[in-house]
Write a structure and sequence with these properties.
Helices cover 73% and strands 0% of the residues. The protein is built from 13 helices and no strands. The two termini are 25 Å apart. It has helices spanning 5-33, 37-40, 55-63, 66-97, 101-113, 118-131, 138-163, 166-174, 179-190, 192-208, 211-216, 225-229, 241-267. With 277 residues, it is an all-alpha fold.
Length: 277
């Protein structure tokens, strides 16, 4: 059925409003990052700075160790993304291809685990890391990020595995390939968009995570970038708005750059033409 013009116009209007809603905080952040102090305190703020300056960026780097904190965040996010994908990929294959009670139980665990709030998890995780002597360490934080990202990563990859036509695996079995060889040589290459999307999800989740890093990391030189951003807020709750906006703008760039570079692989149809009808 064709969509009528009023309905189509309404859809585009709703989509435009949603895009504006998503873009407004980021655009305002960029504008604030380049404003001098007198414009930040103006009673009539403007979108475009009248006298743009880089002083906020220089002040942000002078006041806080942003590069070192960004390196900590990068190491933790990359390690968590790689480990989560390596663990979730074979698990997702088993869950998607094996219709057993165990597979259903794992699926149920994935759904239920997403309902747990952070506060309920931090105490048992803290005790476990304490026994492993991983408190106040980046490896301990990576372990927490992997545990937190693994359920949703498994859920995502299981959906991608189900989208792979079983006929490809059956053809590989006829040619004499075993289950492991089939998964590595046939299924895994077709899962490239799903693996990339899952890794991106795990990376962005770990890069932006704040609560676990705040609780588990006490030494300043081990803190991640989201925690260091809170140092721009004074003891009385007054924020140093210019440097804070500049540092927050820089903190959002890695996620945007990574997504821009690989978004085609995420949305690309890697399975097109794999099976002839």
């Amino acid at each position: 059925m064709r969509t009528s013009r009023p309905a189509r116009a309404g859809q585009y209007t709703a989509l435009l409003a949603y895009l504006v809603f998503l873009a407004f905080p980021f655009l305002w952040l960029v504008s604030t990052a380049f404003k001098p102090p007198r414009e930040l305190g103006s009673l009539h703020p403007t979108w475009i700075p009248k006298d743009p300056t880089l002083a906020n960026f220089r002040q942000a780097f002078d006041e806080q160790p942003l590069l070192h904190a960004a390196l900590n965040s990068l190491l933790a996010a990359l390690a968590a993304a790689v480990i989560a994908v390596l663990i979730a990929t074979p698990m997702a294959y088993v869950v998607a291809r094996r219709r057993t009670r165990l597979a259903k139980a794992v699926t149920g665990w994935v759904v239920v685990s997403q309902a747990f709030p952070f506060v309920l998890l931090i105490i048992p995780l803290f005790l476990v890391l304490k026994n492993l002597r991983l408190i106040n360490s980046v490896p301990g934080l990576v372990l927490v990020y992997v545990v937190w990202a693994l359920p949703f990563a498994l859920w995502m990859l299981a959906g991608y595995v189900r989208a792979v036509p079983p006929e490809l695996e059956e053809a590989a079995a006829v040619d004499g390939a075993g289950r492991v060889r089939t998964m590595v040589s046939v299924t895994a290459p077709l899962l490239a968009p799903g693996i990339v999307a899952t890794g991106l999800f795990a990376f962005i989740t770990a890069w932006n995570e704040f609560f676990f890093a705040l609780v588990l990391l006490k030494t300043p030189e081990k803190q991640t970038l989201p925690v260091v951003l809170t140092h721009f807020i004074g003891a009385e709750g007054v924020a140093d708005l210019g440097p804070l906006a500049a540092a927050a703008f820089l903190a959002t760039l890695p996620s945007l750059v990574v997504f821009a570079l690989i978004q085609r692989r995420i949305t690309g149809g890697m399975l097109t033409g794999a099976v002839k009808s």
